[in-house]
Structure formats: C-alpha cells, structure tokens
Task: inverse folding
C-alpha cells in the first residue's frame, strides 16, 4: 500500500482551493493499492487557506500567523489514518508519493520561508513523521 498526497489525485484540498492532479500519480494509483490523505485539511485547515512555509521549527502562513499546531496535528492524524488502514487491510506500507516542496508533504526539499519559491533541504511535517518508518518516499517529480 502506498501513501499518496490527496491533492495529487485531483482533490481540491490545496491552499488555493484547487488541486495538484498529476496524471503519472493517478496512473500509478490505478495499478497499486493506496491511501490518500491531506494532512492540512485533517489538521482543521480550510481550502482555500493562506499558503504557509516552514521557518525554523514553526510553520507560518503568508499573513504571518503561526499555524504550527494545525500542521503538526494534521500530520499526526494522517499518520494514524495510514497505520489504521494498513492494519485493517493487512496491506503493508510500501512507500509514499507526496507533493513536492509542501510544508506538510515535501520530501527532502521545502520552500525556505520567504514565499519566493526558493527551495532548501528539509521535509514537510508529514514527511518528517514518516521518516522513522524507513519507507521509500518520493514526490510526483520522481515518478
Ligand atoms: S497537505 Fe499535502 S495533500 Fe494536502 S494540499 Fe498540501 S501537499 Fe496536498
């Protein structure tokens, strides 16, 4: 079973109110079992919402609001959903395909906190929680 960022499958959960549908990811999910989650919506955030980026150990939105709690809570809820689904189905988690650069789903690179599309090394809040499980994590850019 693969963990997939919900926006990559066409759900309108992105901060802008739209999606990040990616045909390669959709095609991959047609042929593999998966569980799709959006940590930010699970954390209680609305879509649309202000974009946010990680600054140090905080997540701050473009209006300057500290949204760290919502991002961390959402990541934990998403992880619990994935673990529960895996246990109930008996389907082991094989990997994750997550949205690149997102403050929740980004794998290995995230934006630098200046809202200027500059990327730095780092994981989003959800990807960070998944690291200790040693599953293969990719983004849609790696497919
Ligand atoms: S939190 Fe992840 S799944 Fe949700 S919109 Fe952002 S990148 Fe997509």
Result:
């Amino acid at each position: 079973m693969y963990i997939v960022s919900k926006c990559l499958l066409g759900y309108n959960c992105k901060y802008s109110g739209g999606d990040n549908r990616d045909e390669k990811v959709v095609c991959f999910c047609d042929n593999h079992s998966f569980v799709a989650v959006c940590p930010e919506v699970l954390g209680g955030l609305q879509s649309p919402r202000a974009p946010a980026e990680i600054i140090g150990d905080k997540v701050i939105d473009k209006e300057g609001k500290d949204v760290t709690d919502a991002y961390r809570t959402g990541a934990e809820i998403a992880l619990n959903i994935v673990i529960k689904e895996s246990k109930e189905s008996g389907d082991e988690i094989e990997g994750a395909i997550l949205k690149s650069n997102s403050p929740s789903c980004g794998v290995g690179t995230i934006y630098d906190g200046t809202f200027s599309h500059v990327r730095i090394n780092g994981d989003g809040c959800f990807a960070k929680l998944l690291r200790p499980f040693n599953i293969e994590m990719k983004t849609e850019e790696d497919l």
Notes: The mean pLDDT is 98. Strands lie at 2-5, 34-37, 52-55, 58-61, 95-98, 109-111, 119-121, 136-139. The CA atoms of residues 13 and 102 lie 13 Å apart. Residues 5-7, 13-14, 20, 38-40, 99, 102, 104-105 surround iron/sulfur cluster (CB under 6 Å).
